[in-house]
């Protein structure tokens, strides 16, 4: 390192932080139980078809019912 001048040390403090927990980690049972013990507010929301063996498309929607009940002939000449 000839010709670079005198070496000095930088004594400025450096702050290292952890990343925020990911969404998957927030759902972990251990993390939820720790939050309950700490007194944090926890919200549980059940999804509409959670835990069922039905696909979202298996139910008849209003638009499908209207199309099935339609008796108008829509053929080209």
From TrEMBL:
Chain intervals with Basic and acidic residues compositional bias: 65-77
Region entry Disordered, spans: 45-77
InterPro entries recorded: MBF1_N (IPR013729)
Ranges of compositional bias, category Polar residues: 47-64
Superkingdom classification of source: Eukaryota
Keyword field: DNA-binding
Residue ranges of domain Multiprotein bridging factor 1 N-terminal in the record: 9-77
PANTHER family referenced in this protein's UniProt entry, alphabetically: ENDOTHELIAL DIFFERENTIATION-RELATED FACTOR 1 MULTIPROTEIN BRIDGING FACTOR 1, MULTIPROTEIN-BRIDGING FACTOR 1B
Protein name per UniProt: Multiprotein bridging factor 1 N-terminal domain-containing protein
